[in-house]
Every structure is written in structure tokens, then in C-alpha cells.
Write a structure and sequence with these properties.
3 helical TM bundles of succinate and fumarate reductases, heme, about 150 residues, SuccDH_FuR_B_TM-su, 4 helices, about 60% helix
Length: about 150
């Protein structure tokens, strides 16, 4: 007694309807998000290792990092934009990764919506606050005994 089964080639396009979250929607957002993760990951490697090398291996290392070190570093616009790029890329990279996890594991549409709403809100808040800190940082606190403020 032999049984015959129909040969279905891999990736034949036969996907069960229950896995289609938005039927009929065609677009390349997920492909662009995938590409963004790869490109931003490469840039983050350069930014993070550059940050670690200049902060920890140059000069006195970790013992030199204090308020004055950050004030001196952020007095240079190059380091402001370096840290800004690191902040923005890290937050967007992480948000995209968490968005993918939410899409994979949240079964209900309502749960998925609220998890993503909290994710996007917190991302915007952290990016805005981090950007404000980088560009409005003033080491000269009134009444401060720092040398740079006199």
C-alpha cells in the first residue's frame, strides 16, 4: 500500500490565512526595516567602539570620567553630533527590534497596538530628552567653582 502526496516546493506562496495580519497589503516597509537594522548596526559598531576607545582607553581611562570630562567633551560640536548619532541610531535600532518582537509574539491586534503605542511614545520621549540634554548642556551652573565658568 503506497501513499502519494502532492509535492509542494518550499516558499510556494501557500500561507495559511490566519497568518496574514493585513490581507492584501503590499509594501516593502519590512524589507526597509530589515535593511535599516543591518546598516544601523554597522554604524553603531563604529560609533560605540569610537566612544569607548576615546572615553576609556585615552588619557586616565575610567577614572577621568566625571562632570568636567563630559563638559569638555561636549564643548566640541563633533562630540555632540557623535553622541547624538549614537543616541538616535541606538534608539531607532532598538525600537525596530522590539517592534519586530511585538509583531511576532502579540497575538491580539489590540495588545499589539498598545504595546507599539507605548514603545513609540517612550522612544520619542527618550530621543527628545537626550537631544535636549546634548545640545542644551551648560557646565556653568550659577555659583559653580569650575574653572571653565570664570
Amino acid at each position: 500500500m503506497s501513499t502519494t502526496t502532492e509535492f509542494v516546493p518550499p516558499r510556494s506562496g501557500r500561507i495559511d490565512k490566519k497568518y496574514n495580519r493585513v490581507p492584501g497589503k503590499k509594501g516593502n516597509f519590512e524589507m526597509l526595516a530589515w535593511l535599516f537594522m543591518r546598516i544601523s548596526g554597522l554604524f553603531l559598531i563604529v560609533l560605540i567602539f569610537g566612544h569607548l576607545i576615546t572615553n576609556l582607553l585615552m588619557g586616565d581611562g575610567i577614572h577621568a570620567i566625571d562632570f568636567g570630562f563630559v563638559a569638555g567633551k561636549w564643548a566640541n560640536p563633533v562630540w555632540q553630533f557623535w553622541d547624538l548619532a549614537m543616541l538616535w541610531l541606538a534608539m531607532l535600532h532598538g525600537t525596530n527590534g522590539v517592534r519586530t518582537i511585538i509583531n511576532d509574539y502579540a497575538d491580539k491586534d489590540r495588545t499589539r497596538f498598545w504595546l507599539k503605542a507605548v514603545l513609540y511614545f517612550s522612544t520619542i520621549v527618550i530621543i527628545v530628552l537626550g537631544t535636549l540634554v546634548i545640545f542644551t548642556f551648560d557646565p556653568c551652573i550659577p555659583g559653580s567653582p569650575l574653572e571653565v565658568c570664570k
